[in-house]
Design a protein that fits this description.
349 residues, alpha/beta, 15 helices
Length: 349
C-alpha cells in the first residue's frame, strides 16, 4: 500500500509540473491571452487623457504616441486614450497624473502654470515671432525646451514634461462684431472666457475685455446663454468645439503660438521596465517632432472648414496695436513669476 501511495504521489507531482510549464510564457513572447508580455509576464497599459475631441491636434499627439509605443515595444506597452474630457478638464487630469491615477495627459501651458508659475510668461501674447521660431524653441535639443523640462522637474510635483505639443496659433472669436484692434474689444464690451491663469486675465483686461475663467468645455453653452461673448483659441480647437455654431466673428489675431505639453507622471515611469525606458523616451521625442510637423496642416484644414461654415474671418487685424499695448508685460510678468530665464531663452531664439 505504501509503495502504491508513493507511485501515485510522484505521478501527481509530475502532472503538476507539466501543468505549470504549460502556463508559463517566455519573457517577451505571446502567452495564452494573445497579448505580448513584459519581462514580468504582464502587458503594461498606460492611460492618456485630453480635453480634445478625436480629430483634434491634441488627440493626434496622443494617438501618434500610442502607435509608436505599441509598435516599438512589440506590444508590451499598450495605451488607452480618453478624449473629449472623459476624465475631466485639464486641471483635473493634471492632478490625476500627479497622483498616479492617470499616466499621461496633454496640458496647456496656461493651466500648467498653476503648478509651475514660471510658465506664466509663455501666456503673454506674441512671445514667439512666428511658427518657425516656436518650432525651434520646442525642439528636443533646444536650450528653451531643456530649460522648460528642468523647471518643471525642479518642482518635484510628480510630473515631467515628456514632449511639446500645441494647438496652433490662437484667434479671438466673439458673438457681437468684428475685432481688428483692442479698441474694438472695448467698444463691443466683450465678456471673454480665459484659462485659469492670472496672466491671461491681465492680458485680456489690458486689451479691453472682461475676463471670465471657465473650462473650454463650457464655452459653447456659455455663449448660447450670453454668459460670455468671446473666447480665444486655435482654429482647430474652435472648430472641433463647434464654436462656429454660436459665434460668427473670427479674428486672425495670431496672438499666441500656444505652448502645451504631453505630461507624464513620475508613477508612470515606475511602471516601465528598465529595458523599455529608452523605448518610451524615444516615443515621446517622436511624438513631439510629429506634432510640430503636422500643426500647420491641422491649422489650415480647420480654417478652411470654418470658412465653409459661413463665419466672418477678419484677417486684416492690427497685430501691432495688440502687441504695443503689452510691451511692458514681458519683463513685468517674468519678474513676478520667476520666469526671467525662460524669457531670456525665448529672446535668444
Amino acid at each position: 500500500m505504501r509503495k502504491l501511495f508513493s507511485i501515485l504521489l510522484a505521478l501527481a507531482m509530475a502532472i503538476g509540473l507539466l501543468g505549470g510549464c504549460a502556463n508559463n510564457t517566455t519573457p517577451g513572447t505571446t502567452g495564452t491571452t494573445g497579448q505580448t508580455t513584459t519581462t514580468t509576464g504582464e502587458t503594461i497599459t498606460l492611460t492618456a487623457g485630453t480635453e480634445a475631441t478625436e480629430g483634434n491636434l491634441y488627440y493626434e499627439s496622443l494617438n501618434y504616441l500610442k502607435e509608436v509605443l505599441e509598435k516599438n515595444s512589440n506590444g508590451r506597452i499598450q495605451v488607452k486614450i480618453y478624449p473629449n474630457s472623459e476624465l475631466g478638464d485639464e486641471l483635473s487630469m493634471m492632478e490625476q497624473v500627479r497622483s498616479g491615477n492617470l499616466d499621461i495627459s496633454i496640458i496647456g501651458g496656461a493651466n500648467l502654470a498653476s503648478l509651475v508659475p514660471e510658465l506664466q510668461i509663455l501666456s503673454v501674447p506674441y512671445m514667439f515671432k512666428d511658427y518657425d521660431t516656436f518650432v525651434k524653441g520646442m525642439s528636443s535639443d533646444s536650450d528653451l525646451w531643456k530649460l522648460l523640462v528642468d523647471t518643471v522637474a525642479s518642482k518635484n510635483a510628480g510630473v515631467q514634461l515628456a514632449a511639446p505639443t500645441t494647438i496652433g496659433s490662437r484667434w479671438v472669436v466673439n458673438t457681437k462684431g468684428e475685432v481688428k484692434t483692442p479698441a474694438d474689444m472695448k467698444t463691443l464690451n466683450l465678456k471673454m472666457r480665459v484659462q485659469s491663469n492670472p496672466v491671461e486675465a491681465q492680458v485680456w483686461s489690458t486689451f479691453g475685455a472682461t475676463p471670465t475663467n471657465m473650462p473650454m468645455t463650457d464655452v459653447f453653452t456659455a455663449m448660447q446663454q450670453g454668459v460670455v461673448d468671446a473666447v480665444e483659441n486655435a482654429p482647430d480647437i474652435l472648430y472641433n468645439y463647434k464654436i462656429q455654431e454660436v459665434a460668427k466673428y473670427f479674428s486672425a489675431t495670431d496672438h499666441n503660438w500656444y505652448f502645451a505639453a504631453v505630461l507624464a507622471g513620475d508613477k508612470m515611469w515606475e511602471k516601465i521596465p528598465d529595458d523599455l525606458k529608452d523605448v518610451v523616451t524615444d516615443a515621446f521625442n517622436e511624438c513631439g517632432k510629429h506634432t510640430l510637423e503636422v500643426t500647420p496642416e491641422f491649422q489650415d484644414k480647420a480654417i478652411s472648414a470654418l470658412r465653409d461654415s459661413g463665419v466672418t474671418i477678419t484677417e486684416d487685424v492690427d497685430k501691432d496695436a495688440f502687441r504695443n499695448m503689452i510691451l511692458g508685460l514681458y519683463d513685468q510678468v517674468a519678474k513676478s513669476c520667476g520666469g526671467e530665464q525662460i524669457l531670456a531663452a525665448v529672446n535668444a531664439l
